[in-house]
Amino acid sequence: MIQSYKKKINIHNNYDIIMIGSGMGCLSAGAILAKEGKRILILERHYTPGGFTHVFKRKGYEWDVGIHYIGEVQRKNSAIRKIFDYITNSKLKWADMGKLYDRIIIGKKSYDFVKGVENFKNKILQYFPNEKVALDKYIDLIFTSNKAMGKFYISKALPNIIEKLLGGLMRKKYLYFSNQTTYEVLSRITKNEELIKVLTGQYGDYGLPPKQSSFAMHASVAKHYFDGGSFPVGGSSEIVKTIDPIIENALGTILVSAEVDRILIKNNTAFGVKMKDGKKFFAKTIISGTGIFNTYEKLIPTEVSRKYSLSSRLEKIKPSVAHGCLYIGLKGSPDDLKLPKNNLWIYPEEGDHDKCVTDYLNNKDAQFPVVYISFPSSKDPTWTKRYPNKSTIDIITLFPYELFSKWEGTKWMNRGREYENLKELLSKRMLDVLFNQLPNLKGKVVHYELSTPLTTKNFVNYKKGELYGIEHSPSRFNQKFLKPKTFISGLFLTGQDIVTAGVGGALFSGLITASSITGKNLLNKIYKHS
Ligand SMILES: Cc1cc2nc3c(=O)[nH]c(=O)nc-3n(C[C@H](O)[C@H](O)[C@H](O)COP(=O)(O)OP(=O)(O)OC[C@H]3O[C@@H](n4cnc5c(N)ncnc54)[C@H](O)[C@@H]3O)c2cc1C
Questions:
Q1: Which of 34, 137, 296, 494 is positioned for an S-S bond with 310, CB 3.0–4.6 A?
Q2: CB 38 within 8 Å of CB 516
Q3: Using CA atoms, how far apart are residues 21 and 33, in angstroms rounded to an integer?
Q4: How far is the C-alpha of 224 from the C-alpha of 19, rounded, in Å?
């Protein structure tokens, strides 16, 4: 049954703007538009709001699903921090993870990514003393690519006619970087494969290994964390908690367990939505933050989709990889267990990242091509007060959707013995990786629970349980239809698919969607406001 997220409120039939999904993109657009005086209705199919920013609780523990660290928020004048402060009235606080944010472990060697670009460079130089020229060039390319990024995304918010005139020019510089793979760029500046493997040691943050990923995406993630990482104080659920009052203040609301079945369209104009239970809501503006495949394959009528050849456009993009996450509960506080704040990225000793992924996809018993271990309870300064004598750890790796597709159509928590056995096997393998790194944790684990691509599909509705929406290949950046304005009047898109994966990407997508709808330079307004 459709429910209000917080308390009993009056639900109306008409709103200024209806948003489908309550991920970071919709929350960001929703708060910005609420501040423009719009009455917003956010409809979320899950029983809890936030999309990948939601948390879940079990057996007295709490886990964050899609946030482990966010960059750039520690700097008060960064665009990301300014937008967060604007949409939460500065109520959302950030806990800095400290000097070391990522540790890359390849076989028996480990490499630390430390805060501050000069520190980062000097640290990497300690491991690769002969690579100064390559590292200087690398950092330079990261910054040049990111400098070109702003205009690329702003062009997506321009009115059609201006976009036709200026868009090409605004996109050109960024496309130079996005059209090359990460490996193409890195292999031109160094022949040292070990250095390339280390520098791309965060590829799990965007899901594609270096020979397949766009360099622009790599550059954006690498720079995002150059100033270190932060975690929301109080956990990820603080994001929705601090944004909700802004939406409510403009008489809007967030509804959960509220699945949209169809966007109502007449004469090529969107005018409302029909819910799974048949109820209808109406608005002149509809925003979908459910991902491009959900929006164009499920939510709009087939005849509209046919009219604009949407399926042939969708053929040019692919869902990103799927993942599994082992959510672990331990006895003992993060201090007792000596849990670090930094993340661990663990890779096989042999082979480059692409080969490790291919080997694993061809043989599910091969070593995991990447294992990411995050320690959320040690990142949040309020954790120990909220959950005394407890700690949590998340372990993530790639799981091909096909490994689980035969259980498609079965129900969550009731998929049968064979599925549970497979999960147990994979959980044990993931725990082995953890104990190999931190043997002191043996005997401290009191609960673990593995999510699979079917879990992601069940809760966040991505058709192949994809981790990051559509994949970040070079061709993605050439798809001009990945922008807020759609072919249907009154229907807009937001979320990671129109910018990139990452909380920062989705946050920014909300800004460009709101700018596209209002025709205002809202980034300017946000900067002036602070
Ligand atoms: C395991 C994992 C770890 C991550 N770690 C980080 C990290 O450390 N740092 C970082 O910056 N980013 C991280 N990310 C990425 C980041 O969380 C996402 O890119 C971002 O949150 C996506 O936001 P979004 O707005 O696109 O929407 P999503 O969060 O994808 O939300 C879409 C929402 O739409 C809803 N929906 C779908 N269909 C319907 C419908 N028919 N009716 C109503 N609602 C519907 C879904 O239920 C969902 O709530 C991680 C992601 C994952 C999966």
A1: 296
A2: no
A3: 16
A4: 28
Name the helix (H) or strand (E) containing 18. strand 17-20
Look at the block and give the residue holding tokens 């933050």: 289
The secondary structure of residue 25, as a DSSP letter, is H
User: Residue 519 is encoded by which pair of tokens?
Assistant: 């025709």
Is 80 exceeded by the pLDDT of residue 279? yes
**Cβ-count burial of 417 within 10 angstroms (0-12 exposed, 13-18 middle, 19+ buried)?**
exposed
Read off the pLDDT of residues 85-124 as tens digits, 9 standing for 90 and up: 999 999 999 999 999 999 999 999 999 999 999 999 999 9
Q: Which residues contact 232 (CB under 8 A, 6 or more apart)?
A: 67, 70, 92, 93, 94, 95, 238, 239, 380
Distance 54 CA to ligand 1 centre (A): 9
Residue carrying the six token digits 């990142």: 379
* Per-residue confidence (pLDDT) for residue 11, from 0 to 100: 87
CA nearest neighbour of 498 among 486, 151, 490, 488: 486
pLDDT tens profile 134-144: 999 999 999 99
Q: How far is the CA of 490 from the centre of ligand 1 (A)?
A: 23
Q: Using a 6 Å cutoff on CB, does residue 157 contact ligand 1?
A: no
Q: Is the CB of 52 under 6 A from ligand 1?
A: yes
Contact assessment for residue 292 and residue 515, using Cβ atoms and an 8 Å cutoff: no
Structure tokens, 486: 């759609």
* CB distance 260 to ligand 1 below 6 Å: yes
Q: Closest residue (by CA) to atom 34 of ligand 1? A: 21
Nearest to 105 by CA among 438, 446, 330: 438
Q: Atom 7 (ligand 1): residue with closest C-alpha?
A: 67
According to CATH, where is 3.50.50.60 located in the chain? 3-54+77-89+233-317+479-529
Round to whole Å and give the CA distance between 520 and 76. Answer: 23
Q: What is the pLDDT of residues 402-453, one digit of tens each?
A: 999 999 999 998 999 999 999 999 999 999 999 999 999 999 999 999 999 9
Q: Which residue has the CA at smallest separation from atom 4 of ligand 1?
A: 66
Q: What is the pTM of this model?
A: 0.97
Ligand 1 and 67: CB distance under 6 A: yes
- Tokens 């043996």 correspond to 442
How far is the centre of ligand 1, averaged over its atoms, from the C-alpha of 290 (Å)? 8
Tokens coding 411: 């129900």
Q: Number of C-alpha atoms within 13 angstroms, CB side, residue 363? A: 6
Q: Return the CATH fold of 3-54+77-89+233-317+479-529.
A: FAD/NAD(P)-binding domain (3.50.50)
Query: 473 C-alpha vs ligand 1 centroid, how far in Å?
Result: 19
Query: Which residue(s) pair with 90 in the sheet?
Result: none
Percent share of the chain, pLDDT over 70:
99
Pocket test for ligand 1, best of 3, 19, 28, 52 (most atoms within 8 A of CB): 52
